[in-house]
Amino acid sequence: MIKLRPVILCALLTACFTLAAAAQVLPAETLITPAYPVEPQVQLVLDIARGELGYTEMSDGSTKYGKWAGDPKAQWCAEFLCWTVDQAGQQTGEGILGSLYPNYQGTNTGRDWFIAKGRYIARKGFVPGWGGQWYKGSREAMARDSYIPQPGDWVFLSYDSSGDTAHVAMVENCYRLNDGSGAVQVQVIEGNNPSAVARARYGLDDWRILGYGTVRDLADTSMRMGHSGEKVKALQQRLNLIGLLAEEDITGFYSQRTSDALKVFQASIQLNANGIANQATQLALSERADNWLMEHTEFWVVRDEPDS
Which of 45, 64, 93, 226 is least enclosed by beta carbons within 10 angstroms? Predict the structure, then answer.
């Protein structure tokens, strides 16, 4: 039998305790704190979704979510999410289904709803049919895989090269791996996985992720004729504010008149007058509109503060 000297034994024990302590200090992953507070109505939706974990479809493929949506045997990932939002709305008395989140079943419909609302972030920083994206106020193009989704966001996925949405899930949390890679994983709650409500993980750079429907307006997107939605309406309001577009043309639809008004603005600041609201144009227009408001104090609204 080999006898260890006391000094060597102490060194080995110290090393073991050090490794054990390091294992406690460095877990396998770290929860990423959300960048924004989770609103109560979003938290309620998440809580309701967690309460459904483990629910399994019937033997004939039907679910209560499909039945609620009018098609008991539907492929029910979207139906599950819409159902949770409806349940939250019933508890709070707020119509959040159709305002904060879409009520839909069809392919691409939910993603397109978020795009129209101006609350969609593409994983690659480019929205097909629209153009490049940037974080609000930023002068840099959005880098791919840079958005850390927030709890309550919806993630849209595709399983082939078509780019059509084939699955949707709700973000619960994000985690950073402590294996030296710094990789981020997105934890979601999803229905129809493959026949139950369950948690799943996707890498932030997973090729299947198309993008995220967000609970906040965090990014802007290039726009051009034919587009419609809240971002288009905001663009038209700025053009109207500086006197380039009539009030009756604030429709939310990117018309020829909108394009012509934008061309006039672009020419006035020596940008390519092509009528496309790209990043440089939108940032310059926002700055012009803000300056116009600062110079026209007659439009300021002064509110009386209540006595304390």
Answer: 93
DSSP string for 225-248: TT-BSHHHHHHHHHHHHTTSS-GG
Q: Could you tell me the sign of the dihedral formed by the alpha carbons of 25, 30, 31, 34, in that order?
A: positive
Single out the residue in 158, 191, 219 at which a domain terminates: 219
Q: Look up the pTM and report it.
A: 0.88
Contacts 24+ apart (CB under 8 A), 31-34: 31/173, 31/174, 31/175, 32/148, 32/173, 32/174, 32/175, 32/176, 32/184, 34/150, 34/151
**Same domain (yes/no): 213, 227:** no
Alpha carbon distances (Å) from 182 to 99, 122, 231, 298: 35, 21, 34, 52
Domain count, the chain: 2
CB 96 within 8 A of CB 64: no
Residue 186 in any domain: the answer is yes
Confirm if 66 and 73 have CB atoms less than 8 A apart.
yes
What average pLDDT does the structure give for the chain? 91
Q: What is the greatest pairwise CA distance in the chain? A: 96
- Residues 148, 85, 105, CA angle at the centre, nearest 5°? 90
Which amino acid appears at position 269 of this protein? Answer: I
Residue-wise pLDDT tens digits, 31-80: 999 999 999 999 999 999 999 999 999 999 999 999 999 999 999 999 99
Q: How far apart, in whole angstroms, are the C-alpha atoms of residue 303 and residue 308?
A: 15
Pair (274, 288) in one structural domain = yes
* Shared-domain flag, residues 239 and 254: yes
Closest CA to 218 of 43, 84, 30, 34: 34
Q: What distance in Å separates the CA atoms of residue 244 and residue 187, rounded to the nearest whole number?
A: 46
Question: For residue 136, what are the domain limits?
Answer: 40-219
Q: What is the pLDDT of residues 97-111, one digit of tens each?
A: 999 999 999 999 999
